[in-house]
Design a protein that fits this description.
Elements (H helix, E strand, L loop, with lengths): L1 H16 L2 H10 L4 H26 L8 H48 L5 H4 L1 H13 L1 H26 L20 H6 L7 H7 L4 H27 L10 H7 L3 H9 L2 H33 L6 H21 L3 H31 L13 H24 L3
Helix pairs in contact: 1-10, 3-10, 3-15, 4-6, 4-13, 4-14, 4-15, 6-7, 6-13, 6-14, 7-13, 12-13, 13-14, 15-16
């Protein structure tokens, strides 16, 4: 039973981590090249895994059914709770926007390929809202059932791509290096390793077994790292930097890596596999995040889940993201960039370090688990978090993107 729960926890961490951010990685890291991207992935894996252990340390100070907001209130007081509430809401809205925007071109391609009708990308987002948004409207049980089926499809499509697309790799393309261009990628890479919101759930699920929890976080975070490295090897070894369906065009249009890959290869079977992979990756992420957003709004605004309340929650959950998607042609990448720098890095990087500092050195909470490292390590985490936020602000101000 213990081993089954460990495996379940590991899969929960990996499944939460791997999502639509993975689709953006080739586009946003392509200018830098494979080896600089490999360095950045390893750097953020260390950073985000370490801050996940900080979240675990804080979570173990509390009772059952604590969450990031209550943890911030316990350690940082009202100001910490307020900042966490706003940042968490912003993060969930940004991610929901990214998934709605990312689904549009994919579903539009399906409609064109099957029925021969060309529709604008934002029209392609409507089926996602009507079909899978309805699953969110129905609640957790429906989302859980649909998500299991979609996860099987995601794994199958990924394995098929690895097997059949690998022979198309051009090794010389992997030698391209431009370290300065890594500045483009930091926020989205951060988003691609964000699984911290499920740690309170894991703590309850594993009955606060520290040994099991440490293994779950470590192994569960390594799996996405390996998946991302193989994905970068595959895409950056095939998609050219310039030209039609190249990295440059994808960055300007806000396309995802699987879309560029399918368009560049031209093989209809491989193209359809890449499209299905994109679709599964986006919808599995969409279901989990939008369900979290609905629950968060219901709890924060005290909206009961009656028929009328659920209708209101549906509008509040999906109204702002669809509006932003229509206004911004590259909303997929823009939303992921903002989510990474101003959502993930603040609430999953900076806030955990501040919470541990206050809990350890001011409140002196007794610890069942202490993350390795003392004050110097916590200061390094805070400084690194602020540097990432500052870098993304500089990118926006200078128009580097």
């Amino acid at each position: 039973m213990k081993e089954n729960k460990l495996i379940g926890g590991i899969l929960l961490v990996s499944g939460t981590t791997i999502g639509a951010g993975m689709l953006a990685l080739p586009v946003i890291t392509g200018y830098a090249g494979f080896f600089p991207s490999l360095f950045l992935l390893l750097l953020f894996w260390v950073y985000m895994t370490y801050t996940a252990f900080l979240v675990l340390e804080v979570n173990l100070w509390g009772g059952d059914h604590t969450n990031l907001i209550s943890m911030a209130h316990k350690t940082l007081g009202r100001w910490g709770e307020a900042v966490s509430w706003v940042t968490y809401l912003f993060l969930l809205y940004a991610l929901t926007t990214a998934y709605i925007a990312g689904s549009g071109p994919i579903i539009a391609e399906f409609i064109d390929g099957i029925f021969g009708y060309t529709v604008p990308p934002f029209v392609g987002s409507i089926p996602l809202l009507l079909i899978f948004g309805f699953c969110v409207y129905r609640g957790t049980k429906t989302v859980d059932f649909v998500n299991r089926i979609l996860m099987l499809g995601l794994v199958a499509a990924y394995v098929i791509m690895l097997i059949f697309i690998t022979p198309h790799i051009h090794p010389q393309q992997l030698l391209h290096r431009d370290w300065k261009s890594l500045a483009l990628a930091v926020s989205i890479v951060a988003t691609s390793f964000g699984f911290h919101i499920i740690i309170p759930t894991l703590t309850t699920y594993l009955h606060k077994d520290v040994s099991q929890l440490k293994k779950t976080i470590l192994i569960g975070s390594v799996i996405p790292l390996i998946v991302y490295i193989l994905w970068e090897l595959l895409t950056l070894g095939i998609i050219p930097l310039e030209g039609n369906h190249g990295i440059e065009q994808g960055l300007q249009d806000g396309s995802n890596g699987a879309h560029l890959l399918s368009a560049f290869l031209g093989n209809p079977y491989l193209s359809w596999t890449a499209r299905f992979f994109s679709f599964f990756a986006i919808v599995t992420s969409f279901l989990g995040v939008s369900l979290s957003l609905t629950d968060f709004l219901s709890d924060g605004l005290k909206i009961k889940k009656s028929k009328r309340g659920k209708d209101l929650l549906y509008l509040l959950t999906f109204g702002p993201p669809i509006a932003f998607t229509i206004m911004d042609p590259r909303a997929f990448l823009s939303a992921l960039e903002y989510a990474g720098a101003f959502g993930v890095v603040i609430i999953l990087g900076l806030i955990p370090a501040l919470m541990v500092w206050k809990g350890r050195y001011h409140h002196h909470y007794p610890s069942r688990f202490k993350t390795p490292g003392g004050k110097i390590t916590l200061v390094c985490v805070m400084v690194f978090s602020l540097l990432v936020i500052g870098l993304e602000i500089a990118n926006k101000v200078t128009g580097f993107m």
